[in-house]
Design a protein that fits this description.
With 167 residues, this protein is mainly α. It is 56% helix and 6% strand. It has helices at 23-42, 49-59, 66-72, 77-89, 111-131, 137-158; strands spanning 93-97, 105-109. A two-stranded antiparallel ribbon has the order 1-2. The two termini are 37 Å apart.
Length: 167
């Protein structure tokens, strides 16, 4: 215990940690609920959480290589390869070796894949609209700013840079 405790209303003193109010726990709960709702809405398309993400990325113009998709979907190359196997077996995408570099595999949406992927922004937008129900445009903008700051702070935690230059 500090010999000189901060006054109770001192704005510079850290808030006591309350597990049930922790930002991480709250974000995790929201993410879990959102994930469940998105999964429910993807069922009619026959897509799982993992499967709709690369389809959306391809629809939005992510370079259609396995490496780029793995990066954008936060997946490892092996996992993405198995996922692409499933999407290909459903007729939603196809893989083609690059003519310029045989090590590179390009992924493209099939017409069926494009039709399924074209529904994704509508579905995801609907979920987001419900999530933001009751928020004014100003509150939504403020929330987005707060989330961007939280993301920047989380990146700083993951990638700490020294305060001083090395000698």
């Amino acid at each position: 215990m500090s010999p000189h405790p901060s006054p109770p209303n001192d704005p510079l003193s850290p808030s006591p940690f309350e597990p049930e109010r922790s930002i991480g726990l709250q974000l995790r709960r929201i993410t879990a609920l959102l994930g469940s709702e998105v999964d429910r809405r993807m069922e009619p398309l026959g897509l799982t959480n993992a499967q709709w993400k690369p389809l959306l990325r391809l629809l939005l113009g992510t370079p259609g290589t396995t490496a780029a998709l793995a990066r954008d979907c936060h997946a490892d190359a092996g996992g993405l390869t198995r996922l692409l196997d499933r999407l290909e077996s459903k007729g939603l995408c196809r893989r083609e070796r690059s003519q310029a570099d045989r090590r590179v595999v390009h992924i493209a949406l099939t017409p069926e894949g494009h039709a399924a992927a074209a529904q994704l922004p509508i579905i995801l937008g609907g979920v987001q609209q419900q999530l933001l129900q009751g928020f004014s445009a100003q509150e939504e903008a403020q929330l987005r700013d707060y989330l961007a700051r939280l993301h920047a702070n989380a990146q700083a935690l993951a990638d700490p840079t020294p305060d001083t230059d090395p000698p």
